Amino acid sequence: MSTAQVLLVDDEAVAREGLATALRRDGLDVTTADNGEAALALLRSREFDVLLTDVKMPGMDGLELLRRAHENWPGMEVLVVTGFATTESAVEAMRAGAFYYVSKPFRLGEVRKLVREAADKAQLRAENQRLRQLVESAADERIITRDEGMRGILDIARGVAPTDCNVLIVGETGTGKELLARHLHAHSRRASGPFVAVNCGALTEDLLANELFGHEKGAYTGAQQARGGLVEAAQGGTLFLDEVTEMSAAMQVKLLRLLQEREYLRVGGTEPQRADVRFLAATNREPRAAVEAGHFRQDIYFRLNVVTLQLPPLRARRGDIPLLAQQFLRRAAQAMGKDVSAITPAAMQRLCAYDYPGNVRELENVIERGVALTGGRMLGGEDLPAGLGVNNGAARPATGEVRTLETVERLHILDVLASVGGNRALAARLLGIDRVSLWRKLRRYEEQGLIATDETDGALRMRDATV
């Protein structure tokens, strides 16, 4: 948050300047006024987080200034200080909206603490209001962001959306690849048609062929009647091929014909079927590396790669974390019927300090968990997973050597697996990724010799050489 702005009003110059100096030492930006009228003029000219005013002053007194401030600037917190304290004036001040009522002589430390608390409260209210406005203003958009890189990606997406050209979306798991695909569909000429998504890495070759192309009656045991596939279901709309680089070599041949000829054969069929669809595809691999490694056909890559949109990981767009967190907070609170509307500064600081191996999906899971656990109206640090953002030093071992992001991710995945007793389904949910993505990562780590299964308990562990 920015430096808190404090307006200090007192007609006694020595007391005013002494308190202003103490508050400035606390890092507050303090402006002073010697009477109520001057204070009102300053309030009209700029925004303040806290008004700290004496009561007994010539002309307009502090209680009248409090009433006017509360009426015209309700987001500002007001502290009232007086040397003539009475029960009646205290009650009057609190009813008028004062944050606190302080009697003279006061302890300087107490007033400094109260001003800091009032400033935090006012800034938190302003920040959450600003985030809510941003979320609400983007309610008709599928993706909300204030990150310049993401805005550039959305500008490109808006330019290619009305066309029928193929688009390849590249990004880590959980970065929102399907969300961007839906955004492209929603802004295309096919928006009134269906949007059909299929995870190419979650199905075996035979199941994927059947899901995509359908089958004819009698194509295999149990095929009692002909059934259309997802390509047919997407006619006139968009077909989204998620994790397209995970297709088998045989399926890639069939996909090439679909992309090139816009036709396909049902399983067990001989009559070509026409495909009137727009193709969007996504992968969490580097596609060129997959081509060079022989995992992905170059001709398919060229046909899909008419336009490539590279989504950044959440750790590269930390400025979006507060905005996304507020959006997820509102959504989770509404779904659970809970009155949770804000996130404390301490909790937000921890949220912004974390690297999110599971990206946006993991952030959403963290917020949803917090809303489910909290008993208050604000999401606090105690509602977040232990250690989240508290010491994000996993990237820096004791030796001072900086670990790569891949190593940090691998360590985090193994820590989560260990915390849930090796339950991969639960670990995937906590990480914000699907089970297939977790299985694929673990398989790749084992193939690279980076992790090994302990024969004594079956647990996965990092090999010593990689730590």
Written description of the protein model:
By secondary structure, this protein is an alpha/beta fold. It has four domains: 121 residues, Rossmann fold (3-Layer(aba) Sandwich), CATH 3.40.50.2300; 152 residues, 3-Layer(aba) Sandwich (Rossmann fold), CATH 3.40.50.300; 78 residues, Helicase, Ruva Protein, domain 3 (Orthogonal Bundle); 73 residues, Arc Repressor Mutant, subunit A, CATH 1.10.10. Helix content is 45%, strand content 13%. The chain is built from 18 helices and 16 strands. The strands form five sheets. Strands 2-1-3-4-5 form a five-stranded parallel sheet, with helices on both faces. Strands 7-8-11-6-12 form a five-stranded parallel sheet. A two-stranded antiparallel sheet has the order 9-10. Helix 13 crosses helix 15 and helix 17 packs across helix 18.
Q: Which SSEs are present, and which pair or pack?
A:
Blueprint: E1 5-9, H1 13-25, E2 29-33, H2 36-45, E3 50-54, H3 62-72, E4 77-82, H4 87-95, E5 100-103, H5 108-137, H6 148-160, E6 167-170, H7 177-186, E7 195-199, H8 205-213, H9 230-233, E8 238-242, H10 249-261, E9 263-264, E10 273-274, E11 278-283, H11 287-292, H12 298-304, E12 307-310, H13 321-336, E13 342-343, H14 345-353, H15 359-373, E14 378-379, H16 405-419, H17 424-431, H18 435-447, E15 451-453, E16 460-462
Parallel strand pairs: 1-2, 1-3, 3-4, 4-5, 6-11, 6-12, 7-8, 8-11, 13-14
Antiparallel strand pairs: 9-10, 15-16
Helix pairs in contact: 2-3, 5-13, 10-12, 13-15, 16-17, 17-18
